[in-house]
Write a sequence for this structure.
């Protein structure tokens, strides 16, 4: 009997043979008992029930013609294994050829005791061999395909050992870094890496050795034989336990093109296309970097904002192409002076920014600023022109003026605007004494270009009336800007900014669209037709298709152009009189009237009347205001009215604010006028109520005294005379910093708040924190903070405000005592 180990081995062998379609066969010749495997039964074509297990039973399934031969060979005495072939008849009558491999076992006397072996279906073996051949061919093709893919792939496949020895590397390595596989195989992978890249690579190997189930990915750089750097993405996995690999598998892919494209995109986003200098995005990043990197309290730098004076006129007169050439030359001259180590950027349009670092004294920075200004001493040669240019500069200092990038940029821009307002070729260092109005203009300048998109502009209307009857003859359309932080902003504060930036073109088109839309609505409601006047800037006359654009907008709303009056100032004629004359005549041919605004304030208005066909004259409000108090204003006003009547030009008096002015104008036969006496500018919805009445009656303007309106609900100290104080902004929405300083007049004061007057318009906003510094007789200062809670315009460009103090209840008691002492000291209160 076979022992247990032999039985197990035999069982395993049988299972393997079954898988290979080989039958197992054994026969105990002493006991005449045999057994077959299931695969043997299948090959013989019978089941175990069809075979009784005897030697005779086996012979019976053999083909009769082969039976004798099989019996002779099986009972013969042979050494070792032998093979024989015979045929069997299957139950369906078909014949199958069998290949039988036998091994006999004999006893000591030489008697045959045991036969065992394997049988195979000869035809099946041919099919199996054919299958194996096809399989080997398929495997060969797959291997060949894999080999071709690896060779042709742009990815590199590498196998290294844990000690970094390269065991295998695919041919693609030569395409990427110029090394043939044989130059790397057997060498240490670290040899081909720079020191920083080595550390990354070592960390990757350590990681996959510690965590064999995970993959590791990172980007590295490699230099080829010529020194060119390639950017690669490495993916690494631990295959040490895989018998066919037994190493760490690395796949690295060349991502140089992608990285270069990303760099190009980043370059475009952070650099100016025209000058190839960094742009305002880079400026903010640079300042942030300097602020973060330098913790040394002695470290400092200056941010210099530079703006070319009068650059807009170069564009207007010579064209944008030559303007671009000038910008490139300015950039080149600045770069040559500063060198490569100092930061220079094109901030916007004709504005540049410079960062100068770590000079020892403040006067050294001033010397650099002066040298920059001197760069513009020599004229610039642009095409056929020699252009004498000057610059204005504004400077903020780190850390003296702040440590926040936005703050420093804001302060430098505020200083720049201050220097421009004081004249050409000047520079200003930031100081908290820079006026609030200048700061406000910087904020408005930054927000102006987005105001249309954010729907912040509104059109207001003011009636122009016939003075004798108060009939409404026309309406002047006036633009207003509802700024989210500064409240309602008048045109006087932002029109000049729009002209500087060229935004006035878009703003003018928006304005005319809104007026046409409103006027069409009035006509559809059956309103009596009136004229509507719209103000136009001289900049708009520079548009190539100025007249065509106006007519196109009017036609879009299917309106007759006769409803429109275009208001212009004499600056239109000063800059390009030939084009202005042509455009005005073309507009008048379309039925549009032209009004000359602010008449009397220029130097040559009378000459314009003799040269140009003006339809309407508008007397400037400055003459009307002083008409009853100043002999010169009275004479000029009367003369203008007489002149208009002689020339048969329609006349409108602006700024009528009281009955005395109105009576005088009626007395000299002034035909029409407008002003606060009739109505303040109002939104179209409110103005429609006036149109329903068809008249606009004069009403006396009520100031605070006449109306008896009381804003303050707390006990106030009434001051015998106005108290002068310095006011600055400490905090505005989302930003905290001290900016600006302006003189204000405090009218009254209490423990809860104060009332002051100033020539700057502020929003009523509790997020706007104001600081008031009141000087005392002994040279000390009293500081008070609060928020504006109400405002009113008392006269043109002069406003009154109510302020609520920002103090705790306990502070209010102390404040009351301080105010009382202050007033007693300053005004000799008992």
């Amino acid at each position: 009997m076979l022992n247990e180990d032999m039985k197990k081995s035999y069982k395993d062998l049988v299972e393997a043979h079954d898988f290979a379609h080989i039958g197992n066969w054994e026969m105990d010749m002493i006991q005449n008992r045999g057994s077959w495997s299931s695969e043997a039964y299948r090959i013989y074509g019978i089941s175990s029930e069809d075979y009784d297990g005897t030697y005779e039973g086996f012979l019976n399934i053999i083909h009769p013609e082969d039976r004798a031969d099989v019996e002779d060979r099986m009972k013969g005495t042979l050494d070792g294994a032998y093979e024989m072939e015979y045929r069997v008849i299957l139950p369906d009558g078909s014949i199958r050829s069998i290949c039988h491999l036998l091994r006999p076992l004999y006893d000591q006397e030489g008697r045959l005791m045991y036969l065992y072996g394997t049988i195979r279906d000869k035809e099946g073996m041919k099919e199996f061999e054919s299958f194996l051949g096809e399989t080997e061919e398929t495997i060969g093709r797959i291997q060949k395909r894999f080999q071709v893919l690896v060779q042709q792939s742009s990815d590199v496949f590498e196998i290294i050992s844990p000690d970094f020895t390269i065991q295998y590397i695919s041919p693609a390595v030569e395409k990427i870094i110029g090394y043939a596989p044989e130059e790397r195989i057997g060498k240490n992978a670290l040899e081909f890496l720079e020191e920083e890249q080595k550390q990354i690579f070592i960390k990757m190997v350590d990681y996959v050795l510690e965590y064999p189930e995970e993959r590791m990915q990172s980007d590295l750089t490699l230099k080829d034989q010529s020194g060119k750097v390639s950017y690669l993405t490495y993916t690494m996995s631990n295959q040490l336990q895989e018998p066919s690999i037994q190493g760490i598998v690395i796949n690295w892919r060349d991502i140089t093109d992608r990285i270069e494209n990303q760099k190009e995109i980043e370059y475009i986003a952070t650099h100016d296309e025209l000058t190839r200098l960094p742009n305002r995005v880079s400026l903010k990043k640079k300042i942030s970097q300097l602020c973060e990197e330098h913790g040394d309290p002695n470290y400092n730098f200056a941010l210099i904002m530079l703006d070319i004076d009068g650059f807009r006129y170069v564009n207007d007169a010579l064209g944008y192409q030559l303007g671009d050439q000038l910008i490139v030359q300015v950039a080149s001259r600045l770069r040559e002076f500063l060198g490569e180590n100092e930061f220079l950027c094109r901030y916007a349009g004709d504005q540049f920014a410079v960062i100068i670092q770590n000079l020892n004294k403040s006067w050294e920075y001033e010397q650099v600023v002066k040298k920059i200004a001197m760069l513009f001493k020599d004229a610039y040669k642009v095409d056929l022109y020699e252009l004498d240019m000057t610059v204005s500069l504004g400077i903020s200092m780190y850390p003296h003026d702040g440590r926040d990038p936005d703050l420093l940029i804001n302060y430098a821009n505020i200083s720049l605007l201050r220097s421009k307002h004081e004249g050409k070729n000047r520079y200003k260092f930031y100081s908290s004494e820079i006026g609030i109005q200048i700061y406000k203009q910087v904020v408005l300048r930054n927000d102006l270009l987005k105001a249309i998109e954010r729907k912040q502009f509104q059109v207001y209307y003011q009636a122009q009336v016939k003075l004798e009857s108060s009939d409404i003859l026309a309406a002047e359309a006036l633009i207003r800007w509802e700024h989210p932080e500064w409240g309602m902003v008048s045109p006087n504060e932002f029109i000049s900014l729009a002209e500087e930036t060229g935004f006035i073109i878009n703003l003018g088109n928006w304005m005319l669209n809104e007026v046409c839309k409103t006027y069409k609505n009035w006509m559809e409601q059956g309103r009596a037709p009136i004229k509507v006047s719209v103000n136009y800037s001289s900049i708009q006359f520079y548009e190539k298709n100025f007249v065509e654009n106006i007519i196109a907008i009017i036609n879009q709303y299917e309106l007759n152009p006769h409803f429109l009056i275009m208001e212009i100032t004499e600056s239109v004629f000063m800059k390009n009189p030939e084009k202005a004359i042509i455009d005005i005549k073309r507009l008048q041919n379309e039925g549009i009237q032209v009004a000359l605004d602010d008449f009397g304030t220029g130097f040559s208005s009378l000459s314009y009347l003799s040269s140009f066909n003006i339809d309407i004259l508008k007397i400037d409000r400055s003459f009307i205001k002083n008409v009853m108090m100043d002999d010169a204003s009275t004479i000029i006003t009367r003369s203008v009215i007489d002149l208009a009547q002689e020339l048969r030009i329609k006349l409108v008096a602006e700024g009528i604010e009281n009955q005395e002015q109105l009576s005088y104008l009626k007395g000299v036969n002034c035909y029409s006028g407008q002003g606060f006496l009739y109505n303040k500018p109002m939104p179209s919805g409110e103005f429609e109520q006036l149109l329903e009445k068809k008249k606009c009656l004069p009403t006396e303007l009520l100031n605070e005294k006449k109306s008896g309106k009381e804003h303050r609900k707390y006990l106030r100290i009434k001051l015998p005379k106005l108290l002068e104080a310095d006011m600055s902004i400490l905090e505005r929405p989302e930003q905290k910093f001290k900016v600006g300083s302006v003189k204000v007049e405090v009218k009254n004061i209490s423990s809860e708040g104060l009332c002051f007057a100033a020539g700057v318009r502020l929003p009523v906003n509790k997020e706007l924190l104001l600081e008031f510094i009141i000087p005392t007789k002994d040279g000390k200062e009293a500081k008070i903070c609060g928020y504006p809670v109400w405002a009113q315009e008392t006269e043109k460009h002069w406003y009154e405000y109510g302020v609520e103090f920002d103090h705790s209840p306990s502070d209010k008691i102390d404040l009351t005592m301080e105010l009382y002492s202050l007033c007693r000291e300053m005004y000799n209160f008992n």
In short: The CA atoms of residues 314 and 323 lie 6 Å apart.
